[in-house]
Design goal:
Rossmann fold; about 40% helix; elongated
Chain lengths: ~450, ~450
């Protein structure tokens, strides 16, 4: 195969579609390892930033982008007609859910249609977006086989083009692992497909793990995230059960963690966030319906995790009630807007849901997040809110302070000294060594 | 405290009630570390064996028992009136479920009543049996406070006697960890209670982990086993879902395992076994009802795990059906009777349930297990079956061979060469490098 030679000689040009949390770091890895990379994105605002070596994602440094650009290896464009310039096309577009919790395949399908329009012989396409088993062979393959450049004749997969699924495993801000050091599962449609995609990824990823089919690779990513979703839901349920029994779930988890085998700690929280855990599992649920089976664990995990913001609001009511206060009319300060600590990622953040529920019940809510100066507009929410300062006066003015995201930068001692009531959904205060009668876990 | 001094000088005599999978290895640890140990058991048959330095549990060696006896440190009796001879009483009795899946507290309660009868001032009692949060303070404490030797005056906990809960974490045949090297959680009723129990366990256990109350210690053990039960059920559900989609769950799990963080592999099987995972979670379910809450994950895990033997039987029917055979009238050979590999432990083994279901549906079933020459009588089952030999003739005579327990000793190649059809619930044949058209996963 000519492509295989080109890859082995680092002469293959790598195209990345979608320059977000997944595509951008991956593209940079290729560029810094000596490949020419051309990034594609529909968002025009990203292009001049990238060309100028500037980042728009907190945990990806401008320096890294600048290095890749300065090497002459990294360019970005919104012009998809340039797709024939690249030898490998890596699709890193979002796969959200629609409002009925069904897969929203628009990004994948639209991207695939665009690729189909420009597909030329000898190209490799790999999909990295999390999706249901079957996507690669049931949606992408038939589209590409009917590429428009072949005058009605079919492109043959594994000969005229190569197709694989290789799930991203990004974990923003993980101190131990990043794009290049996380092993990567790859499932090709044919043997040639797996050979070229493995050869390509081998240049930038510490270890590639070939599996027998794209469907197995698709299922692998789902298993990983279903596992997380279910285990988070389990501790969220136990948090509620143990709370009724007067037992602190956080202490129980710390004790269980001392078992040196067969236990892995997960922690409760105010609800799931991020682009993966709250969403991915339902891709399997949706596909399973086609086979007339249900995925009960995924449904139950969804039910319990989705309930968590409401649980926090109910706990807030009970706690305020101890002080003879109603939620309605109370002034609340929400600490943390991002979906997890020390990042600025707002996708699916439970803080947004908390604000909605608090407001619905008559509370006045403001927020602070050192990494989120202004709440962004999302598909669902459009708050006009900016982060307030954490001063002594500010803190003492609120009926309650609700900790939603346990950023490491917070001065928990200062907050505890100045807040009237604290509702802690992350056990952050106790972890910081602070125990007070006015701090409640939720 | 006098007891603390006695413990520190190794002059305390340790009494162990229940000389089974938990009590026997623990008692031996104390004896081998220089404590005088007196074991109590209601089963008369155990006593002469122990005195003669002979084992009745495969993974505990006779040599270890003999060493302890020869040191003059280990004795055993059925005479509970000797309880006043010991300074610490460690309760290691079973906590099964009754036929309505409610806690069967008979063993704990009867043991506690016996202790109450003989309790003398200055004794420590710790409970190791897995149970619901509250057992120690709601059942044991009031009983012991009314010890019969005090002429109607109450014994005061933490002064007249010491009481703690410290869950066992035995994992038979774990190559990396055994009794002494697994950290141990301890929750005392009072500070004195925690001090003496930690001092005692510190002599034999690598690390003790004190927690704030017996209830937290009780909940810790439940969390550990609920986590396992739920995660096994999750992969069992996914096995069924992926099977419909033509995806091999075992391959998916192997691929997911290459993620270096945030994933822990669990494996599907023919059903749960052992004394912990199928039972313990329901202790929390039962207790939660008192607080008018439900434990949905535990219920769902129970439902799915309990269904697995039936699933294997259904798969057997479908597989035989491919060969135009009915289950009714078929001759089946079940490989493996113990609940997990390389041990002889039959407690709650799904193999017993499989035999029942196969027989119910008209199949003729025999079994082989190198460690279980004869099926024991259990509360539920009483089969008159002995393990048959695995010869070429034997193997080829059966319509299907069903692998239930993947003992390492099995010669998988030999079995695969001689069996007509193989139904593998553990993926053992593929793991042994054997792929054949007549091997099916279930």
């Amino acid at each position: 195969m000519k492509l295989l030679e080109k890859i082995k000689n680092k002469e293959a040009v790598v195209g990345i579609i979608g320059l977000g949390y997944v595509g951008l770091p991956l593209g940079l890895e290729f560029a810094l390892k000596g490949f020419k990379v051309l990034g594609f994105d529909v968002d025009e605002s990203k292009i001049p930033l990238l060309k100028a070596g500037k980042t728009y994602i907190k945990h990806i440094s401008s320096e890294k982008i600048k290095n890749a650009v300065d090497l002459g290896n990294f360019d970005a464009t919104t012009d998809f007609s340039r797709l024939p310039e690249v030898d490998a096309i890596i699709i890193c577009v979002p796969t959200p859910l629609n409002e009925h919790r069904d897969p929203d395949m628009t990004y994948i399908v639209n991207t695939a249609k665009t690729i189909k329009k420009y597909l030329r012989k000898g190209q490799l396409i790999t999909l990295e977006s999390t999706t249901y088993p079957g996507t690669t062979t049931e949606i992408l393959q038939p589209l590409f086989e009917n590429a428009e450049q072949n005058n009605g004749e079919k492109f043959i997969v594994g000969e005229d083009f190569y197709l694989a699924f290789s799930p991203e495993r990004e974990d923003p801000n993980n101190p131990n692992f990043s794009t290049a050091t996380i092993p990567k599962v790859v499932g090709g449609v044919t043997k040639n497909c797996i050979d070229v995609s493995v050869a390509l990824y081998d240049f930038v990823i510490v270890k590639t793990v070939p599996v027998s089919s794209p469907a197995v690779a698709e299922a692998t990513k789902l298993l990983e995230n279903i596992y997380r979703s279910v285990n988070i839901a389990l501790v969220n349920e136990l948090k509620m059960v143990f709370n009724k029994m007067g037992i602190d779930v956080w202490e129980v988890i710390e004790a269980a963690k001392t078992k040196p085998f067969g236990f892995n700690a997960f922690y409760p929280g105010p609800g799931l966030g991020g682009h993966c855990i709250p969403i991915d599992p339902f891709y399997l649920t949706w596909k399973a319906r086609e086979f007339e089976i249900s995925t009960k664990f995924i449904e139950l995990a969804g039910e319990i995790n989705t309930f968590q913001p409401q649980y926090v609001v109910e706990r807030t009511m009970y706690i305020l009630n101890k002080y003879q206060k109603a939620l309605n009319g109370s002034k609340l300060l929400l600490l943390g807007a991002a979906y997890k600590k020390d990042i600025d990622d707002m996708r699916e953040s439970p803080s947004l849901k908390l604000i909605e529920l608090y407001k619905e019940n008559g509370a006045e809510v403001v927020y602070n997040d050192p990494y989120v100066p202004k709440l962004p507009k999302t598909r669902k929410y459009n708050y006009e809110k900016t982060s307030i300062e954490l001063t002594k006066e500010n803190l003492s003015e609120f009926d309650a302070v609700v900790l939603s995201t346990d950023h490491s930068d917070y001065d928990y001692k200062f907050i505890a000294e100045n807040a009237k009531i604290i509702i802690d959904t992350r056990n952050a205060f106790e972890k910081a060594g602070i125990k007070q009668d006015n701090i409640f876990k939720a």
